[in-house]
């Protein structure tokens, strides 16, 4: 039987080139090898304050960008998390089988709670909702960026705990995470010690998939570099240039060695100029497909069909777990 793949993206802003290279590019690849389910995880976005109108638009745009990036709705299933109430229900059932201590150790919670004035209970239990998203579909494989490694480990622990207590209930999923040199963690353009994030307050720190060409050129021109002028891949000594090289490599298809060789006699200026053009060329077809998908009703139809498909997959797993917990049939 084909392996099942599940992953999601939060509509907490416009998808960045980090989300694309770290996760979505792999979604596109995996749809040819496995049964794929990709979700716009709007309930996750609610864990930090959102403007309702922006969230609404970002949810539809995230789904449009899935398709624009190459996910084929005939091959893979695309849907919105909140359209399938089973996610929230399973999340509660899993919360009652998760521990305060293990959630307190999650580094994303520590980072985000330090940055946000308002720390919601939802931000704390976020990783359990993520576990529910994955376990509901008995997913074999979860393609994510490396910031989600710890959450995935927690998902596996929760699944194993429940299987041990109640008998086989959930498949224990495997992570699918690229190395850092292959896009697993694209860093901020303004601070190479921080991950690129779509919800950052500083738009210069990220390239969004919908940035117009001139803005992309400007952001890459002003991206921080390291001391010296050598184009060399060295995460320790040259974190900023190494990050730009990963973006260059994944967008152009050239290896890191080929890039080093190509720029052995030039400085950062030429490298950045070329990188900007390569990123513009990579995003141009995505942006034009995105514009086509803005036609009223187009993405909504894809999302309705997706919801109907996944509801059928989710129901038996949720019912089985409800029975095992002793909840009366409905
Ligand atoms: N910088 C990154 N490099 C590589 N992969 C990344 N991902 C996120 N940032 C990078 C991966 O993209 C997928 C979708 O991420 P998400 O929307 O679920 O949330 P996130 O991981 O919290 O991403 P952001 O962009 O930083 O969102 P905000 O700003 O809302 O927190 C995931 O597979 C993620 O690993």
State the domain count: 2
- By DSSP, the count of extended strands is 5
**What is the architecture of the largest domain at the second tier of CATH?**
3-Layer(aba) Sandwich
Strand order of the largest sheet: 1-2-3
* Count of separate DSSP helical elements: 13
CATH class of the largest domain: Alpha Beta
The CATH homology group name of the largest domain:
HUPs
Measured between the Cα atoms of the first and last residue, the distance is 31 Å
Q: Do you know the CATH topology of the largest domain?
A: Rossmann fold
Helix content: 40-55%
Please compute the radius of gyration using only Cα atoms.
Answer: 20 Å
- Point out poorly predicted stretches: none
Look at the structure and give the mean pLDDT.
97
Order of helices and strands: EHEHHEHHHHEHEHHHHH
> What small-molecule ligands were found?
adenosine-5'-tetraphosphate
> How can the largest sheet be summarized?
3 strands, parallel
Structural class: mainly alpha
Could you tell me the strand content as a percent range?
5-15%
Describe this structure in words.
The protein has 330 residues and is mainly α. The protein folds into two domains: 4-178 and 296-325, HUPs (Rossmann fold); 203-291, Tyrosyl-Transfer RNA Synthetase. It has 13 helices and five strands. It has helices at residues 17-30, 42-45, 52-68, 86-95, 100-104, 107-115, 121-135, 149-166, 213-221, 239-252, 256-262, 268-292, 298-325, and strands spanning 4-9, 35-40, 77-80, 141-143, 174-176. A three-stranded parallel beta sheet has the order 1-2-3. Strand 4, helix 8 (149-166) and strand 5 (174-176) form a beta-alpha-beta unit. Helix 3 packs across helix 12 (268-292), helix 4 (86-95) packs across helix 7 (121-135) and helix 4 packs parallel to helix 13 (298-325). It is globular, with a radius of gyration of 20 Å. The model has no long low-confidence stretch (mean pLDDT 97). The structure holds adenosine-5'-tetraphosphate. Residues 8-10, 12, 16, 18-19, 22-23, 144-145, 147-148, 183-186, 195-199 line the site of adenosine-5'-tetraphosphate. The site of adenosine-5'-tetraphosphate has 22 residues, from strand 1 and helix 1.
């Amino acid at each position: 039987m084909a392996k099942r793949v599940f992953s999601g993206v939060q509509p907490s802003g416009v998808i960045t080139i980090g989300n694309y290279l770290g996760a979505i590019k792999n979604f596109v690849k995996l749809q040819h090898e496995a049964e794929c389910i990709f979700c716009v995880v709007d309930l996750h976005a609610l864990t930090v304050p959102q403007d309702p109108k922006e969230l609404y638009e970002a949810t539809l745009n995230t789904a449009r960008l899935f398709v624009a990036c190459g996910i084929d709705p005939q091959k893979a299933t695309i849907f919105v998390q909140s359209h399938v109430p089973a996610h929230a229900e399973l999340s509660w059932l899993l919360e009652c089988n998760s521990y305060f201590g293990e959630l307190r150790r999650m580094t994303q919670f520590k980072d985000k709670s330090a940055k946000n004035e308002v720390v919601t209970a939802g931000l704390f239990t976020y990783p359990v909702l993520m576990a529910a998203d994955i376990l509901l579909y008995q997913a074999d494989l979860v393609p994510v960026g490396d910031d989600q490694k710890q959450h995935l480990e927690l998902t596996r622990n929760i699944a194993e705990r429940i299987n041990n207590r109640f008998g086989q209930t959930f498949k224990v999923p495997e992570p699918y995470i690229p190395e850092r040199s292959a896009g697993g963690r694209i860093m901020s353009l303004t601070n190479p010690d921080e991950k690129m994030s779509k919800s950052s307050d500083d738009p210069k720190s990220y390239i969004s998939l919908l940035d117009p060409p001139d803005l992309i050129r400007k952001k890459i021109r002003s991206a921080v570099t390291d001391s010296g002028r050598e184009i060399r891949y060295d995460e320790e000594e040259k974190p900023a240039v190494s990050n730009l090289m990963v973006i260059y490599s994944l967008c152009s298809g050239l290896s890191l060695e080929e890039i080093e060789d190509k720029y052995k006699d030039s400085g950062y200026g030429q490298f950045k100029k070329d990188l900007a053009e390569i990123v513009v060329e990579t995003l141009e077809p995505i942006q034009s497909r995105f514009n086509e998908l803005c036609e009223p009703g187009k993405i909504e139809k894809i999302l309705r069909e997706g919801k109907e498909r996944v509801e059928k997959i989710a129901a038996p797993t949720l019912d089985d777990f409800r029975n095992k917990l002793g909840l009366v049939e409905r």
